[in-house]
Amino acid sequence: MADKKKYIEPALKTKRETYAAPYIAADYDDPVFTSAAGMAPTVDAMYTSMMALGANVWMLQRRLRIMEILMEKNGKVTREMIEQYQPTAAEKEELQKARNAFVAEMYDPFKSMGSVPYATSIDVPDPAVKKAL
């Protein structure tokens, strides 16, 4: 089992303010959060993967926004410019709103549960539309 008290610091080659906090290493080899009698552990693996994917997609979107800002201001972009960039207060607020919208779009569906059991047929009012068998 991984040492959960070990902090891992990111190795950044920059002096800019960072937004990532040190994290505690976790043991992802055998996590099960759902009931053994309920959903399969596959659901946990899918959710964990989706969370990682969402974090990476947001990182790319944020980096792209910074690249666009730098292109507008300077007409060129280098990797160092991106790494050293400090957003203004207005840009920070805009990024926060965009991040909140992204998180809501990605994860709000988990707040609601469907009312039609999976793979069941429903009554279709239009006789021209054939019902699934």
**Can you write the helix and strand succession as a string?**
EEHHH
Number of strands: 2
Intertermini distance: 48 Å
Low-confidence stretches: none
Rounded mean pLDDT is: 77
Globally, the shape reads flat
Q: What is the tally of helical segments? A: 3
Q: Classify the secondary structure makeup into a structural class.
A: mainly alpha
Instruction: Note the main sheet.
Output: 2 strands, antiparallel
The portion of residues forming beta strands comes to: under 5%
Keywords:
mainly alpha; 133 residues; 2 strands
Question: Could you walk me through the main structural features you see in this protein, from its secondary elements to its overall organization?
Answer:
The chain has one domain. With 133 residues, the protein is mainly alpha-helical. The chain has helices spanning 41-74, 79-84, 89-107, and strands at residues 7-8, 23-24. The protein contains 3 helices and 2 strands. The chain starts with 6 loop residues before the first strand and ends in a 26-residue tail after the last helix. The longest helix is centred in the middle third of the chain and has 34 residues, at 41-74. Helix 1 runs antiparallel to helix 3 (89-107). A two-stranded antiparallel ribbon has the order 1-2.
